[in-house]
Design goal:
By secondary structure, the protein is α/β, with parallel strands linked by helices. It has one domain: Peptidyl-tRNA hydrolase (Rossmann fold, 3-Layer(aba) Sandwich), CATH 3.40.50. Helix content is about 35%, strand content about 25%. It is built from 5 helices and 7 strands, in the order βαβββαββαβαα. A 7-stranded mixed sheet has the order 2-3-4-1-5-7-6, sandwiched between helices. Strand 2 and strand 3 form a beta hairpin. Helix 1 packs across helix 5 and helix 2 packs parallel to helix 3. Its EC number is 3.1.1.29. It catalyses: an N-acyl-L-alpha-aminoacyl-tRNA + H2O = an N-acyl-L-amino acid + a tRNA + H(+).
Length: about 190
């Protein structure tokens, strides 16, 4: 079993903001994998979708906590299903990567990302994979980083994202395929 989590903030005012790129990408992934629609699961503090990919059960989650408390939701799902941290992929924005860049890192620090800090604290481990989506652009040096991540994408960025999201989905599918046959024992 694998868990893929898209980080973001709940609420209309956060839709299409840079900080919610994880939610946008996980929705695109759900559509490609043809999984069920996201359903609010109170016990997980998340909207959850699940299905099977290449014979492996995959859970997709969008934490409904705010970004800085994402670890609460991830921890609830991880403990309920007894998922190893190595079987978790977190999709998140990255201020240090140029807009449009994609980078996967396993066993990586938070890089100052509060959502990732929360997940590391809840799991007691950083041994999960982060799919980092670059959001940095020329506006960042002129703005407070908190204000920057909560701004909506520019029109040009939105158009570029429409082209990039399918590429990101393919990268995540490749990640899942590469790790599907690696059987990790359940935690004790």
């Amino acid at each position: 079993m694998k868990l893929v989590v898209g980080l973001g903030n709940p609420g209309k005012k956060y839709e299409n903001t840079r900080h919610n790129i994880g939610w946008q990408l996980i929705e695109a992934l759900r559509l490609v994998l043809d999984f069920t629609g996201f359903k609010k699961e109170g016990k997980f503090q998340s909207a959850v979708s699940e299905g099977t990919f290449q014979g492996q059960k995959i859970i997709l989650a969008k934490p409904l906590t705010y970004m800085n408390n994402s670890g609460q939701a991830v921890g609830l799902i991880q403990r309920f299903y007894k998922i190893n941290s190595e079987d978790i992929l977190i999709i998140r924005d990255d201020l240090d990567l140029e807009f449009g860049k994609y980078r996967e890192k396993q066993n990586s620090s938070s890089g100052g990302h509060n959502g990732i800090n929360s997940i590391i604290n809840q799991l007691g481990s950083k041994n999960f994979t982060q799919a980092k989506i670059g959001i940095k652009n020329e506006l960042l040096p002129k703005m407070d980083p908190t204000d920057f991540v909560l701004k909506k994408f520019t029109r040009a960025e939105k158009q570029e994202l429409e082209k990039l999201l399918p590429e990101y989905v393919l990268k995540i599918e490749k990640h899942l395929l590469a790790n599907i046959n690696i059987q990790t024992p359940n935690p004790k």
